[in-house]
Design brief:
single chain, 16 helices, six-stranded antiparallel beta sheet, transducer, MCPsignal_dom, Four Helix Bundle (Hemerythrin (Met), subunit A), coiled coil, membrane, transmembrane
Amino acid sequence: MKANSGKKPDNQKRKNNQKQKRDKIAVGFFRGIQFKLIASFFVPVICIVALGVSSYQMAANAVFSSYQSSIEQTMQMVEDYLNLVLDTEQASYRSYLQDDELKRYFLGNMTDAVVYKGRTTTEFKRAVTGDDLLANVFFISQSEEPIATVDLTGTEAYEAFVATPQGELAQANATKYLLFGNQSDADGALGVDSSKYSMRLVKKMVDSNGFMIIDFAHNILQDSLGALNVGEGTYVGLVTCDGGEFLMENGQVIEQEEKVFSGQDFYQNAVSALSAGGDATAGLSQVSYNGSDYHFFYRALGDREAVIAVLVPDSQILAQAADIRRLTVIISVAAVIIALALGSVLAKSFGGTIRKIVKCLKKISDGDLTVEIQSRRKDEFRLLTEGISGMASHMKKLLTNVKEVSGELTTAAAEVSESSEMFMDTSKNIKDSIQEIEKGVQLLDKDSADCLNQMDGLSSKITSVTDSAAQILKMTDAAEACIAQGMNATGELTSSAVSTTRITGEVIGAVDELEQKTRSIGQIVEVINEIASQTNLLSLNASIEAARAGASGRGFAVVAEEIRKLADQSLTAAGEIAKIIQEMIQNTGKVSEIAKEAESVVATQSDAVNATIDSFREIERQVSGLLEALQLINDSVKDMDSDRSATLGSVESISSVSAQTASSSMEVYGAADKQLEAVTRLEDASEQMQKRALQLSDTLKQFKL
């Protein structure tokens, strides 16, 4: 509030500067009512000018169309007339070119050539005298005297004419009738003056080296081309194939070195257009000649390579439309003067009233709402002044009410500012709390992820333990089967040991009996045979039992084999019994001892087998217990795997919930952040509202109510 109060002098100073600038503002001329009124009056003036220009243009077009039609018709008539004249004279003198006497004359085959020349000359002069169209007629030759209406001798005329461009053209075009102008370097040799004829028709004689030359009267072109004169500055001419011009200006024949048509670009373009083929025999173009604008009319003279040309100045064509242009200028100038006068008078009248209204409006803008505007006018300006007075009255009432509300607005702005500051502090605390919650949720989310990873590892380990337990069960089953096989083998070994003991007892008895029998010498052979037979049987049985006993009966098998050998030896060595009987007695004693020792070993072996059986039974009992324990472990592992799946689902649920919580906390954080921004803007707005309330209060003090 203090800072805002400190800015009051600056605001007042700025307002005073604005007031001074506003008082100095002046409306420029081009933005004023006077200029706008004059410009408005100029709109119909411009329309009048446009109408005059359009009328003038239409009149000019009509005049030009009339001129064009008239000139083209006249040119058509001139062409027809000249073609008629040329065709008539051409037909009249064509017979001379075909006359046999004339041919013989110029070939030098006529004996009375002088008489023929005189008679023909007289005939030509009489024809020219009686024909107003002709000026002279010439028949000239390289070798004979010319026949002409002019007194000529020798061949100088022929030589002079052949040397001219006209003679060269005639030589090159022997089958054509060529039309030339009235300027020729051979006129002196022909004894004529160019002012005495207008055009020359030339035809080469085919049978002899000579020419027929017909000069037409001067008045033919003067009268016919004079009809094309349309006024001052008009050029009319006949341009022949040799570039010669019969030229008339303002209806008078003129002689000048400079060509008007020949050599000009517009004329060459016209000749090109006529020579291009097609049906074009005439034309018109807009040209510039000697710095002035002209309309160029041209028309071909049949097929004689000559052109009737007319240059008509545009000023002459548009002369008849000059009155319309003059009237348009007068009316336009008068309209401009009237528009300026009316605009100035009305602008002055309006300007006084407007300045009065502006003066009162300046007072109102300075805060003086007590002014009243009065006007004597009875038009819209009176309505304007009454409206401005009503506006000032209503503004006075409005500002009175605003002044009353201004104090309340200032108080309310201060309260809003305090509330917004408190709201801003609360929003900051909420934002900080949400940040802490977000950190905790992020940590919980991280721990849940770690727990989930550890559960995944535990799950893989439990799966590995389950697989190992299953393998141990399989190995235990295999061990139990091996134990059963071992017990079966041990039982068979016990049976073999019993058989061995029995056989050993029998061996001992046999040895004792052998010892008794050996003492009977008389019955040595029979005893030996009997013993050998019995021994073989016993040896066979002993071998069978030893094979059954396996490793335990291996020693007994050796003994049995030895006994069998002894029996065999006894059978074969009956004759030697007497010698070895003493040895047998000794050996029998040893055998008895060995048999007893074997019996003792067999007894010991039986005890070992029994101990082995007991060990196998104990192993079987332990393995059964191991199987039960492994089955219990396997069941426990399955329960752990089931619990692991449930725990994993719970951890995933916790992770999902933590993620949702994090997302929600972010949304809440965003909302809190936006709320803080809104509160900040609210605080700024409340400060602005306080400033505006003070400004409003200061502004209201300026008004005089």
